[in-house]
Design goal:
homodimer; about 240 residues; alpha+beta; Jelly Rolls; Arc Repressor Mutant, subunit A; 2 domains; six-stranded antiparallel β-sheet; 10 helices; 8 strands; about 45% helix; DNA-binding
Chain lengths: ~240, ~240
DNA sequence: CGGTACGTTGAGTCATATCAACCATAGTGG
DNA sequence: CCACTATGGTTGATATGACTCAACGTACCG
């Protein structure tokens, strides 16, 4: 633990790099954040919090990737979103004053800052620009949720899978060989799309036959973006 | 128009009755609202705004019911939520600074107050309690959206229909004969559940055979709440 | 080496969508 | 007043997308 303290990232630097919601804080407020926050490390598979928990603060991702999901009736996960560096999670439960309605699990080893509820409330009360920024964020996420609802309700699994591949490409990028940078199990893919693992596998290999993607274990190389776009019916 | 001015509801009274997000405003702020807002009437079928529009303010419902929906790829509506007296719509687009991602149409004749964007921003900047209230609202809606996503992704149409009936019962209430107070076409029901009109019709008549509901045109009488609850797999 | 987690494929089933026809109702215009 | 049209509701027949179940391969790990 001790040795980590040296590496604790400074919020002022961090927010410059990530253009995060903290960009409008005064230097005193940033200092307070630096002082009050708790820097933590997590490994793939670690759980940050679980549905039903009361949470005493929110998390700002500094490094790594986290999946935020809900557990359905029969125990099946539904992935709601991912959080990557610069993004925050668990603020929803904290602000709506409800127990967490999602769980958060590490996909890629993480470094995160934990910021207690009181600090969040203090900032909201003292800095209107920060409030507005948070509101924008929440409203933006709400818009994305609405689109997702419409997609799941109306599109076929095939369309959704194509769309998700493109979305992952936009959100996490691709390497030099056009491989998706984010690495997910087939089950996780299924849990985003909202389908069975087997269906994802079958559709992926269809996409492969159609020269839309190339598969190497969990590596997915995007060969034909336009083709996927066409299948996904996004406009 | 002139004659309506007499009937313009006062925000101070309104917010007492509906315990709306405006409850923490100062009396000067309420006065400003009263002065700046525009009181409007709409009839069933009227459209308040459409997807893609830039909106110059948000609406607070005083009377009536509005459906908020997205239009999918093939023109099919997906109902995202309803708004009833005391609730506000379109604040999402205004705050996230994006064009509307939904449309809003009147289900039951409406009286609404239209409040310009500037006023909203002014209030957020000047009154932190109001910001917090708005944040709570947005976060709460986000939580509901997340549940809805999980439901649509994982439950059968049958389960969802049962769930929606109960939800409509909670949100809009029932009359003395246990009839749902809200009156929707079969198509609208389908567009909430995310299914085909014919499927809703068939399932409703199954529910009827199973003595769970009684049907009289658009009137739906809830006969067996526990039965529906069991089908819906809500816990 | 056995165990565990993940990936793949095949076969069979079922829920749900689609297509088509038909009825009821109400509003419209000539 | 009647034909006309539009809208909503219902039912039946048929097609099929997607799920489930089951078996098996692969790889990594202690």
């Amino acid at each position: 633990m001790k040795q980590h303290e040296l590496y604790v990232p400074l919020c002022e630097k961090c927010s410059l790099e990530t253009s995060s919601i903290f960009k409008h804080l005064t230097s005193e407020e940033v200092e307070m954040l630096n002082f009050e926050k708790d820097f933590r490390h997590y490994k793939r598979g670690d759980v940050l919090y679980r549905e039903g928990n009361r949470i005493s603060g929110f998390y700002c991702i500094h490094k790594g990737i986290i999946k935020v999901f809900k557990t359905g009736f029969d125990g099946k996960e539904q992935i709601i979103r991912f959080a990557k560096p610069g993004e925050i999670i668990a603020y929803r439960s904290v602000l709506s004053n409800e127990p967490a309605c999602t769980s958060a699990k590490v996909i890629e080893d993480c470094q995160v800052c934990f910021i207690p509820t009181e600090i969040l409330i203090t900032l909201i009360k003292s800095n209107p620009s920060f409030s507005l920024e948070l509101l924008r964020l929440a409203c933006h996420e709400l818009g994305e949720a609405n689109s997702f609802i419409t997609d799941i309700a109306q599109k076929t699994v095939r369309e959704r899978l194509a769309e998700i591949l493109l979305l992952l490409m936009n959100d996490f990028g691709i390497d030099e060989q056009n491989n998706l940078k984010i690495s997910l199990t087939r089950e996780e893919l299924a849990n985003i799309v909202g389908t069975a693992t087997e269906s994802v596998i079958r559709l992926l290999s269809e996409f492969k036959s159609d020269k839309l993607v190339e598969l190497n274990g969990r590596k997915i190389r995007i060969l034909n973006k336009k083709g996927l776009l066409k299948i996904s019916n996004v406009f």
